[in-house]
Amino acid sequence: MEHEMRAEYAEGGGTGEERPVKNWHMVRGEGTRAMCGRELGEGARTRSEADWGRTEEPFCHSCGALYLREVP
């Protein structure tokens, strides 16, 4: 199963690509529901799962734990 990272944005930030990322979450496939259950915006920025652990912003702890159980 493929995964991708999807952004959760900080409240009251900018717009579009300039919005500050509060947390990164992991989603299955190209979905919008994070592995932790949070629903993320369809237009939220995405990154490859290969970027997991390589972001300045924090990564959702719950998504990270579930992701590690699914990948070899």
From TrEMBL:
Residue ranges of the region described as Disordered: 1-26
Compositionally biased intervals (Basic and acidic residues): 16-26
Protein name: GATA-type domain-containing protein
Source organism (scientific name): Streptomyces boetiae
